[in-house]
Amino acid sequence: MEDIFFYVVAGAALLFSLVVRRKLDSTYRRWGEIRNSANITGAQTSKAILDANRMGRVRIRPIRGKLSDHYNPRNKTIRLSEPVYGVPSVAAMAIAAHESGHAIQDDVDYAPLEVRTFLAPVAAAGARFGLPAAIFGSFLGIPSLVQLGIIAYAGALLLQFLTLPVELNASKRAQRQLEKLQLMGEQERKGVHDVLRAAAMTYVAGAASSAGYVLYLAILGSRWIFRRPPLQNPILKPPPVV
Asked: pTM score, two decimals?
C-alpha cells in the first residue's frame, strides 16, 4: 500500500513540476525576445535599483547557465545568468529586479530572509538525507531512524514554505522599484508580472512535492513508530527456572 502511495505522490509531484517548468520556460522565452523600452540590460537594471537605494557595496557579477540567477547575502553579490546580465529584454529586467529585491531585503534586515539564510545549510542536509534515512529505517525496523528521517525532511519542508513569502516579497519590491524609477511601460509591466509569477510557481511546486513526500514518510514510518510489540506465544514460552 505504501509503495503505491509513493508512486502516486512521486508521479503527481513530477507532473506538476514539469508543467510549472514548461510554463516558466515558455514565459521566459517569450519575454526574453522582447526588448524593454528603457533599452537596459539586466546588469544595468540591478545597478539602477542599487544606486537608487544607496547600495553601491553590493556587487553585480555574471554567472553561467540559464535561470541560475541569485543573490548571495553572505558576500553581498547579485549573480545574473548570461541571458540576463547583458541582454536588454523584458525578462532580463524582471529577473534582475527580483534579485535586486533580495538585496534590498538584506539591506533592511528582512527577518524571513535572515532566517532562511541561517537555516539553508541545515535544511539542505535534511532534504538530502531525510528521505533515505526514513526508508532504510522502515526496512530495517529501526523506529528512531525513521523518526529522525521524518523530522529532518520536515525541517527542509518548513524552509520551502518560508521561501515562498521571501520570493513573493522580493518580486513585489522589484515591481515597486521598476515603477518608481520609471523603467517599464505598460508592455513591460505585463511581461515583468508574467515572468515573476511563473518563477514563483516553481517554489510552489517544490513545496507541494516536499509536503507529499513528508506525508508518505509519515505513513511509511507509522507502522514502526506506532506499532505494538508482538505478543509472546504462551505455547513457546520457556518454563520457569526452578
From this structure: 0.76
